[in-house]
Each structure stands twice: as structure tokens, then as C-alpha cells.
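FAQ: What does a ligand-bound record look like?

Like this one, built around calcium ion:
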Amino acid sequence: MSRPLKPLFKQEHSDEISNRSANPVFSDVASAFLSRRRFLQMGVVAGAAVSFPALLKSPAAWAVESAISRPSSLGFTSIAVSTDDTVRVPEGYVARPFYRWGDAVGLKGNLPEFKTDGSNTTDEQAAQAGMHHDGMAWFSLPLGGDDPHHGLLAMNHEYIDNGLLFKDGVANWNLDKVRKGQNAMGISVIEVKKEGDSWTVVRPSEFARRITVNTPMKLTGPAKHHALMKTEADPQGETVLGTMQNCANGHTPWGTYLTCEENWSDIFVKKAAPNALEKRYGISDSDESYRWNEVDPRFSVDATPNEPNRFGWVVEIDPYNPQSTPRKHTALGRFKHEGAAITLAADNRVVAYMGDDQKFEYIYKFVSANKYDASQREAAMDLLSEGTLYVAKFNEDGSGTWLPLVYGQGGLDESNGFASQGELLIKTRLAADVVGATKMDRPEWIAVDPLAAGSVYCTLTNNSDRGKEGKAPVDAANPRANNVYGHIMHWTEENNDPASGAFKWDILVLGGKPDSADEKAKGSMNGAEFGSADGLSFDHRGVLWIQTDVSSSTINKKAYEGMGNNQMLATVPGTNEYRRFLTGPRGCEITGIAFTPDNRTLFINIQHPGEPGDDISDPANPTAVSTWPDGDKNGRPRSSTVVIVKADGGIIGS
Ligand code: FEO
Ligand code: CA
Ligand code: CA
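The answer part, i.e. the structure of the complex:
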């Protein structure tokens, strides 16, 4: 059987455009309010001599908010950019690969060793770390405590590289290979412990768990039991097998992990013409896919038309109970979920902020119907099953509105193709189009300031299509055409209450090179330059940490020439000073952030070290780009969690 020889098994970012809706982007309406002079001030007119957008917040405006216990500055010396094939951290810090792809997860009586030639079996892979570690969270042991030396790490394995996963790559394609790939995705839960100065993965552990693309999970919320969620294998529309393409994450105050399904549509293939819903979510007939559809009919949309509707959700996992069934919460909407940043409203309702990572997609917020009661963990487990989903509209004057996505309101009814709340949620993107949400430059991670109620940040990683002929033009919130460096948004909820319907927004920083002579390439930061911010999280002291994901084909090239390998930075909001804390090995992105409660240990993930620019790895030469972390030219590069401590045991960043 002849096959295309170049299946792309990576497609980490679906950065193509699915949103061709005609809902006005901001600048269509802005002209009614803004003079050309104002546009010039904001730097949104192509070719004009520009200053940074007026909505970049001045350091003075931050003075009040930063008064609590936030440090006034960072305590480490910014490191240089690096193109070396290693992890670099500032002097006084130690970084060590800790849980690599193929390391045993710690299941009792099942601790398979990693084979460096890709020959681990499908069953072995189900008991080992998956590939492409991404979002991650810390949970102290026991439940309810805050021990900084003993806990669980739950983490995502976002995608796979079949050139590394198999000894012979994609040759002799068959169902067993697909199953091994499915076992290399999903989630790991590992038990970790600090003994003396050293962190170890506890093996075996009663908590150790791998969740894969075939682990049963329960649906909750309005789309459960909907006709569009039913399949032959699940005629009730209530039990889905697995989660996949899990990108970033969240964690709840009641000690559960949230994992977010991002580029799931890359896995589904439909040979017949896609319908409007499938098109809006980017399902195509492309053979440049994972090829699971060829041998596992669940991923052929022609064979199993409703299966794609069962992906694109946020999944809640109880890491403290390895027997628990994960739940897919349909109330939080269906899109290409980047992460789910959780906070509590003034009245203790639960709020989740979520980005949809694709060019010109939206930022969402969910507010639970019921309130969190810390003494009722079981009841808390249902909080994400019922509530209101909103989508963000960023107005040109720095105000913003959360537009409710509620059946029967704002045109979200039969006239626009929604017959129920369940249907609306399955078609979340289409509903957001109807209400006129603002098209953003690829919303990635969102972080809530732990020291300033209602103060929220979101990375907009990049959007090279912004302002192109026939594409959405620049607007105040996405102010640069051909936005290759991205920016970080900030907003403050009205009355500092995360449940508010309105907010005020500004831009924290524009990515790029501060010294560039090209105004359009200028970064607005002082200190370490960066672009394509992706990972974003506060530590317990209110320091904001930023991780970059410049695509493998662009690392240290083109617009990113001289900027080195992907990196991690820190800033104290309000200072506009950015320091480079870590640089990664070749071909990787930096992602995943988890601090222990004492802020003295930081876990991060190195994803896809050695990834070639535009293709999967060559199984005949898998170390062409990187040998990290093992340094074995005859081995394979391996995604890995990295544990970072200060050599003197001090607070990270101090
Ligand atoms: Fe998986 Fe949007 O990064
Ligand atoms: Ca990401
Ligand atoms: Ca990414």
C-alpha cells in the first residue's frame, strides 16, 4: 500500500486559522471612537513611527498592588542567551533532569527500564513516562497538607514524535504502533520526595498512575448525553475513552489536577467534506497527521462521526486517588484548550480562565454556579459541572466585557444553530463568534496574581497572520501586524472580583528585541529579551515566571536570530525588568511550572529536545539536533521534568 512518506506527527501548535467568522474584530468598531492620532499613539498603524501602545501599563500604576509581600526585585543575575545543548541556570542554582520519557512511573511490580533504541513495547510504555511533558502541578502529601518535601507531580504528555518512539519510525505502520503512541500521550502522576539534599521519584508508589488515550472518563455538564456526544461504543454519551494533546493545566483548591485538550483535531481525519462544525475546529482530510485513523476507526471521522465532539474539553483528575475516574467537564466549553487557571470569586464561586490557542481565537472564563466550601471536598468535585461560560471582548478604550455563552441569550438559539446549552458548548467557538468576542493572537497560559485579587495575565504567543490581507487587522489588544514575538496581556476584574462581568485591560509587555532599530520588532521589556511567551505562572511570592516556545523551525533563526534556545524568565510585575533564569537544550521548548509550597524547589519541563525544524525525528539519526539529557550520541533525546534548587537551599528567585 502506498503512503505519503512524510507524515507530520508533531503539529504541536495548530497555528493555522479556523476562525473565518465575520464577527467584528476590534478595529472595525474602533474607528468610530478613535482618531488616527490615537492609533498613532498606540502604534497600531503599519509603517508609522510608533511608540508602545498607550495601554502598556506604567510602572507607577503598579506601586499599590506590589506593596504586600512581593519582593521589589529579583535576586539572581540574568544569564546569557544560549545555543548549547544543555540546561543553564544562574550561578548558585542546580538543575537536574528528573523524570524523563521512558522512566518508570512507579507502578507496583511494573518498572520497565527505558531502552535507548526505541524498542520498549506498547505495554512497557504504559508504565513509563510519556513523551513531550507539558503542564504540571504539585500536590503535597498527605491531602490537605503543605509539606514542601513530599508530594505528587501530575503532568501532561502533550504529543509524540514517532521518529523517536519507534526503532524504525513509521515503517510497517500498524495498530500496535498506534497503541504505543496512545500510551505515550496522556498524564503521569508520580510521587516525589526530598531526602537530604536530593529529590527522588518514589518507586513503587501507591499513587503512581498513567492516564492514556484509552483510559475511561466520565462526561459531566450540559453536553453529557447530548446526541452529538453519542457513539456506537457509548450510546448514552457519557463515557469517553481517554484524553490527548494535553497542553497546559490548572489545579483546584480541593487538590485536583486539570488537564486541557489542545490540538486534538490534528488526530482526527475526515476524508469526506467536513461540515461547518468540523471546519471551525480544523478537522481536515490531511494525511499529514498521526495516522491513527488508518487502523483505529475511532479517529476516522468518516467511521465515527461524533468521536471528535468528545475531545476539546478540560479534564479533572484526582491525583490522590489512582482508582478515581477522570471527568471531562463540558460546562467549561469545547475548544483547543491551552490551560485552566483557577481562582475564587469574592463569594467563593470557582472561576476558571482559559485560552483557545489558535490564531484569532478567544479567551474564556467559567464561573461556577455553586460556592466552594473547603470542608466539603466531595461536593467541590462537582463545582466545575455547572456554571456560566463567558468569552472576552476587549474594547479599544481599555475596558472589557465578559459575554455570556448561554442558550437563549444574545442570539444563541435555534436561529444560529443552537438548540440547547449542551449543543452550544459542543460548538463553543461558533457561539463565541455569534456574540462578537475579540479575536486574539493565540491565547496560551493564563496566570492569576496570588497577591492582587482579580488581576490576571495571559500570554499571546504570536500571530504572523495578524494584519495580513484578508485576515483580521490589528486592534488595541493585538496591536502589531505580523506579531511574530507575541505579547502578554493583563486585566483587572471590576471590583477586583473574578466573577465580574467587566474588566479593565492593558498590555504588560510586548515580546521582541528592545534594542531593535525596527520599531515593529522592538520588545518593550527592560533586561532580557524574549518572544513567543507560552508558559506563565506566579510563584508563591508574586513573582511572575514566563517560559518561551519559539517553534523548532525558528529557534535562533529568522526574526529570532541571536535569541538562542528557548528560555524561562522572571519579572516582578510593575518593574518591567525581565531576567533570564534558564535556557534549554537544542530544539526544545520550556514549559510546565510547579513550585513547592516553600518556594524552594521548582519543577519545570523540557519538551521535545532535539526536535528537527519541520519534521519528525529521523529514527536513523535521532540525535541529529540534541543528545539531551543523557548525552548519548547513540541514544535518543528525551523530554524530561527538571528539578531546580538553590545550592544553599534558599528561595527560588531570591
Ligand atoms: Fe500546547 Fe498552545 O501550546
Ligand atoms: Ca503551550
Ligand atoms: Ca507549546
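Follow-up question: can I read anything off the structure? Yes, for example: The CA atoms of residues 139 and 152 lie 5 Å apart.
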